[in-house]
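Researcher: Sequence recovery benchmark, item below. Answer with residues only.
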């Protein structure tokens, strides 16, 4: 069984910073691509950023250089450093992990962490 646990959300003023963390665990699993998505109230879930096990990153245009994704493979943990936050960044942020065991690959989501940016 795989567990994906996010942390680090909270309330911050516009212009502030937050760092989200997501730790994946599961016996016998190897964790490949990891990424962050967000879902604002009344809107569809959207991609924020992804990172491969080799460290290749991809960002959605909405981040415009304000967010940085990174990972610690030894800890199976992915981070999202968010700076210059705006009220429109308010959303539930979800971590998605692609885990493989043997020839099979599975997709797992965390429970989400709320980020609220006040103006």
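Model:
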């Amino acid at each position: 069984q795989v567990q994906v646990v996010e942390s680090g959300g909270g309330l911050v003023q516009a212009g502030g910073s937050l760092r989200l963390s997501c730790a994946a665990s599961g016996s016998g699993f190897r964790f490949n691509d990891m990424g962050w998505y967000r879902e604002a109230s009344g809107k569809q879930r959207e991609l924020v950023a992804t990172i491969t096990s080799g460290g290749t990153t991809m960002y959605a245009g909405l981040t415009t250089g304000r967010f940085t994704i990174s990972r610690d493979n030894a800890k199976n943990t992915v981070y999202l450093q968010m700076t210059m936050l705006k009220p429109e960044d308010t959303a539930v942020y979800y971590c998605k992990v692609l885990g493989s065991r043997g020839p099979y690959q599975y997709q797992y989501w965390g429970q989400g962490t709320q980020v609220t940016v006040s103006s």
